[in-house]
Write a structure and sequence with these properties.
The structure is a homodimer. Chain A is α/β, with parallel strands linked by helices. Helices cover 44% and strands 15% of the residues of chain A. In chain A, the strands form 4 sheets. A 7-stranded mixed sheet of chain A has the order 2-10-9-8-5-3-4, with helices on both faces.
Chain lengths: 377, 377
Amino acid sequence: MQKYRLFAPGPTPVSEAASLAMAQPIIHHRTKEFEKVLEEVRAGLKWLFQTKNEVLIFASSGTGAMEGTIINTLSKGDKALVIDGGKFGERWWKICKAYGIETEIIKVEWGKAVDPQEVEKKLKSGDFRALLVQASESSTGVYHPIEALAKIVERHPKTLLVVDAISALGAIDLPMDRWKIDVLISGSQKAMALPPGLAFAAVSEKGWGFIEKSDLPKFYFDFKKEKKALETNQSAYTPAINLIIGLQEVLKTMKAEGIPAIFERHARLARATREGMKGAGLKLFAESPSNALTAVCAPEGIDGQKVYKTLQEKYNMTIAGGQDGAKGKIFRVAHLGYFDDLDVVTSVAAVEWALADLGYKGELGRGVAAAMRELRK
Amino acid sequence: MQKYRLFAPGPTPVSEAASLAMAQPIIHHRTKEFEKVLEEVRAGLKWLFQTKNEVLIFASSGTGAMEGTIINTLSKGDKALVIDGGKFGERWWKICKAYGIETEIIKVEWGKAVDPQEVEKKLKSGDFRALLVQASESSTGVYHPIEALAKIVERHPKTLLVVDAISALGAIDLPMDRWKIDVLISGSQKAMALPPGLAFAAVSEKGWGFIEKSDLPKFYFDFKKEKKALETNQSAYTPAINLIIGLQEVLKTMKAEGIPAIFERHARLARATREGMKGAGLKLFAESPSNALTAVCAPEGIDGQKVYKTLQEKYNMTIAGGQDGAKGKIFRVAHLGYFDDLDVVTSVAAVEWALADLGYKGELGRGVAAAMRELRK
């Protein structure tokens, strides 16, 4: 017997409480009962996004909310500045391209975070309607310096700061209103510990001003229509009812834990995973590591994809391999959402075993011991 | 104690087997295990859609697949012919409008089906790239004559027949390949007896030819990208994993029942509901009634919305009221998906009680008796 363990940066394990809530008989969305659910969920999402703004909910993957942001905030002829330091940074300019939005791209070497000064220089050099960035770039495990970027964009009233926090929200502190983030995006299958199928977007007052003027075509992802419906606890189209009921449950758990504790836990799990990997003699890939996941360099002579495959096939554990240029060079372990200290012990232990299986000459247990010491601090 | 009963035309009751399957620990979508799920689901969907074409799966509500169809098959300057006999017919031209697609609208009186001869005349009069229609128009309970329309469109090689079968697929026989339907759309929360959150679109070879030439902007609902991924049992973006696992379970049940039996059951439940309502002295709203739901005229002097509200508040049963111009005039009872004979008995009985509560002078039980006789045939 070998239990299935999920340590990928999304989907992440679904909490049992949420699973049970979602398995209850479905209710109709145009009922007072569901309106109450939505009312509670709206308040909970504002709390989690640390904003007074409405958090829009879509039945889609996170990419839907990324596309929705572009087509609702921008207009024909607009130009956007994109920070591309990985697969998800790439996605920003690909969406822009699909809608004829001109982009300038700040290409960041995979594993590195963007330099805010470079962003500042670029922003001054052109007329950009939006700066598009990831908080946690899942393909590289990098955290981009959102607070510093927010301070820069604040000086550009004609530019929106759009933050894809799909894998960051609820794991890393991103106080939307305090930092003045204009659009903050997330998805259900990351720190919220739900199955995939919900995407979220919160928009600042400044952002809603842009939306009023936007002339790009849209229908399903129409932010204005969705906001109007949500304000009376409705949705423009049939919502993903059972996921929203699961979300209601998850938000209760998160509130009980509290925002500082949630971020401290993710920071602790991240530190322990990093110490564990270093203890096992491995190098970390991200210079500015995200607390949502840890990208680890495969040791000399060992294919990172084989680490991933061995964990999958021999230990029934799903982590993530590398993508594109990082394929074979790294593997990625998440500690995101419904995760606790002993989960880190299991992931580091399994990585140590898998590496040993692949001929790595490390002393078994040194990684786990390092993680344990860190968790004990 | 009063159990909750859901008789709305979507969402419909979720089968217990599907709920349990979806409540199991989530698996990652980039695993062999999930690839096997997708492989089985792809084959099952082709069977259910009665087509050799790939059935695309999106994490979205049905409207997403409607929008997806417009932006993938049409191009700038194209003109579409829309059959608008209700809320969902309206949605077709609203989507077209959002993307600058010119439309001609065949306005059909609510409660009536389109006259195929009128469609034939219109199609000859202009250069239409698509005929957009609902199989079952949920706002009126009407079934439009899809087979007759298909025969007409077959003579127009430059026109696609696009059928929104969101509430019809799996309830009403719509053999895609045999009838030559070019795009057939559905959603998870209707006859498939799943929660909302999945939308489907199958496209004919002719339709794929249109897609090759389409120049409208798209990203999340990009049919070509999704098809390419699906052919290797992948998805372009994170799929709604647990809904797809529920779908795998539902397709097993549907296959065990068999296609002819599924449609016969829906036809029988629909006939019995209609006989039940008539037996209670009520008039039916739809001249060409759909087997997915029954729209009933509120009796003289009784507000249809009050029938809906009484059922909700006093009998814990959700049906649907009327929308727009039909508000107050009708109520709608579904018999769609996970429904059997005795469900019809309960819906007719509850409607009889609710009408009596509202002062209707019918003899209690006459409707139920009529439904029972029909079900016994």
